[in-house]
Structure formats: C-alpha cells, structure tokens
Amino acid sequence: MQVTRSLFDDVMVPNYAPSAVIPVKGSGSRVWDQNGQEFIDFAGGIAVNCLGHCHPALVTALKEQSEKLWHLSNVMTNEPALRLAKKMTDATFADKVYFANSGAEANEAALKLARRYALDVYGADKTGIIAFNKGFHGRTFFTVTVGGQAAYSDGFGPKPADISHCDYNDLAAFEALINDKTCAVMMEPLQGEGGIISPTPEFVQAVRELCTKHNALLIFDEVQTGVGRTGDLYAYQGLATTPDILTTAKALGGGFPIGAMITTKDIAEHLKVGTHGSTYGGNPLACAVAEAAFDTVNTPEVLAGVKEREQMFRDGLANINAKYNVFSEVRGKGLLLGAVLNTDYAGRARDFLVASTEQGLMSLVAGMDVIRFTPSLVIPKEDIIEGLARFEKAVAHVVNG
Ligand SMILES: Cc1ncc(COP(=O)(O)O)c(C=O)c1O
C-alpha cells in the first residue's frame, strides 16, 4: 500500500493538521522522510525524544523486554515497573508512584487524588482548584478544564466545576483566589505550550507558602519540564520549591508512551484500592524503556550537557538575531527554549516553522509568537551548529519574503 499525506485526510479524524512530510527513520537527532530528505530534529516529538531517535540504550531495553513479557495489567505487578518506581522515588521528594500512559492521564490522577485527599481529610467543602491562564495540562475533560485556555475546553457540555484561573506570576491575583476551600493548585514550573514562560522565584515560593497556609496541595505539572529538560532532573529541583504531587510523562519514556504521578506517602494513601486505575499503567515494555531513559538522563554529565547546549542555542540565536532582528528575547531554561518574535513579526511563528521545515529543520511553535526548540538532551554539538545554520536560512527566507 502506498502511504501518502493525502491518505491522512481520507482516513484520519481531522483533529490534527500534520506537516506534508512523512518521516520514516530517525537516528540521534537526524530524521529522514519517505523521499530520503534529511532533517535535523530540534522538536524532539514535542519534548519527548530526550535521547534522540533510536538511542541504543532504549533499543536494547525494548528488545530485551519484548522477548520476556509484554503485558499483565495491574492484577499483577512487574519487575520493570517496580525498578523504575524505586529509582524515581530515590531521585525525588516522592515516596510513591502511580503509572499512567500519558501526561493528561498523570494529571487526571493528580487532580482526582487531590480532591479525594481533601474530602477525606478536610470534608466535602474543600474542592477548589486553582490553575493559571495559558497553562496546559492535557486533553481529558478535567485536565483541559484545569488548563487555562477556554478554547480547548469550550463546546463539550458542562465542565467539571470549582476550577478558577489567574495570570501566571501575578501574586496579588493568586492571593485573591486561594482560601481554605482550595484543595489544589496545579501549575507548570515553566509554562510550555503557553509560550515558554518562567515563573519568578518569588512567585513560586509564595504559591508554595500560600498552599501550605491554606492546606491546599501544590501539584507541579512537569510533563514537559521533567526528566532533564531544564538541566535539573525535575524543574522543581532548580526552583528550591517542593510540590506535594508531581506529574511526569513525555521524556519519561524517551518516545515510548508512559506517564506517572508521584507524591508523598501520606497523600498517596488516599488513592485506595479501587479509587483509580488504568489497564496499561505500569506496562512492562513502557517501564523497561523508561528505566533505561531515566538511568541515562539522570547523570551529572547529561544534565550538565543540557546547560552547555542551552548556551550554544542562546549564542547561535543571538547571532541570527544580530543579523535579522526578528526576536525580542530568547526565554526558557535548559533545552526548553522559546525565541519570541518582535512586534514586526508578531503572529508569524508558523511562517518560521514552515520555512524551517523547507530548510531541513524540525522545530515547534508555542502560540503564534514563539518559536520553540525542545531537542534531544544529548543532541550532538555539530547537529546544533548545522541546525542553527538551517534555521538562519529559514529566518532569511521569511525576512526577505
Ligand atoms: C505541561 C503539560 N502537561 C500535560 C500535557 C499533556 O500530555 P499528553 O499529551 O501526554 O497527554 C502536555 C502536553 O503537551 C504538557 O505540555
């Protein structure tokens, strides 16, 4: 059967609008399409492929596990899941892990746990959830409602209730919302989809203090920031602020679908037998690959390498900007970076993305004004140099029309 992009329009539900390119092979940070055209990958499957494509450690883990055991469901546990959970708890504030299959599912579990914890400990009135405008937490109905973009949650009937939003980094607005009926605050410790927006350290610390004061659980959604992306294993570790619940997905499996919610023993206790679950959560294949990814990323060399690569991106983008004057700033942390278009190019992020693809570079946008880069954490330095050279050509193409 010949597979073409037009087949997508024939057979797929039209909720996505994929590029005309159909990749068929990847190795490290290079990808090839059906016609053999090569791309440098600065997108990493939206911050997922933390070790690039087909990293040998992940391929070995997948192959070995695929010849042992694929699936059991949670009527039995399995060795890869328990090994991974032990490593995650050893490396973080958490004592307990719940495995899911995606970021949205991990967040769904976190929100349900927060509501149940508040019900058990403080009674039926404590149901308020506060989240932030421009936040993104997934596409289940609960998570999309908690996410701060009405465009994604409108039009599906009555929404889960008692959820309110304020602007990120607006402490006065947050203080006005939180009270003793708040059961949880969900935030990204660096907003990704919303435009690569870092919190101020004072804001994060004040949110933590106010959550503690009002007995509200602080949930950090680290689906995009987690597993080395910002140069720390988890972003909270670089913010000197510890959440009560943390969710992680994307890079956790390095490209194999897996998500997790992690928390302390006292909170975890409230998700009792039968309260929540998933057929695939903790699947041995997913956990074996994630264990290999976790082991590979959680080393001083890889984490320090993220910071070195961040500097290469910042220097390269500054050079491009000195020639073409298209960005007002480059923001973000580690390898979660956003080049913000200045007023002359406002709203045109997609034009830069399309021009980049034409030059053999895969990149992303975060809204209409930000070009987003989330490459492999171990992208070879020569691929950064070559990718930035291709990006410069794309910028020249947009600027010169
Ligand atoms: C911060 C954050 N949370 C949750 C999600 C949802 O993850 P998934 O698409 O795996 O459900 C995303 C995806 O972009 C994300 O960036």
From TrEMBL:
Pfam families: Aminotran_3. It catalyses: N(2)-acetyl-L-ornithine + 2-oxoglutarate = N-acetyl-L-glutamate 5-semialdehyde + L-glutamate. Its main location: cytoplasm. One of its GO terms (biological process) is L-arginine biosynthetic process. This is Acetylornithine aminotransferase. N(2)-acetyl-L-ornithine binds at R139, S278. The keyword Amino-acid biosynthesis applies. Homodimer. Pathway: Amino-acid biosynthesis; L-arginine biosynthesis; N(2)-acetyl-L-ornithine from L-glutamate: step 4/4. The modification N6-(pyridoxal phosphate)lysine is found at K250. Binds 1 pyridoxal phosphate per subunit. Belongs to the class-III pyridoxal-phosphate-dependent aminotransferase family. ArgD subfamily. Keywords: Amino-acid biosynthesis, Aminotransferase, Arginine biosynthesis, Cytoplasm, Pyridoxal phosphate, Transferase. Its EC number is 2.6.1.11. It is found in: Cytoplasm. GO terms for molecular function: identical protein binding; N2-acetyl-L-ornithine:2-oxoglutarate 5-aminotransferase activity; pyridoxal phosphate binding. Gene3D superfamilies: Aspartate Aminotransferase, domain 1, Type I PLP-dependent aspartate aminotransferase-like (Major domain). Pyridoxal 5'-phosphate binds at G103, A104, F136, D221, E222, V223, Q224, T279. Its cofactor is pyridoxal 5'-phosphate. GO terms for cellular component: cytoplasm. CDD domains: OAT_like. It comes from Pseudoalteromonas ulvae. May also have succinyldiaminopimelate aminotransferase activity, thus carrying out the corresponding step in lysine biosynthesis.
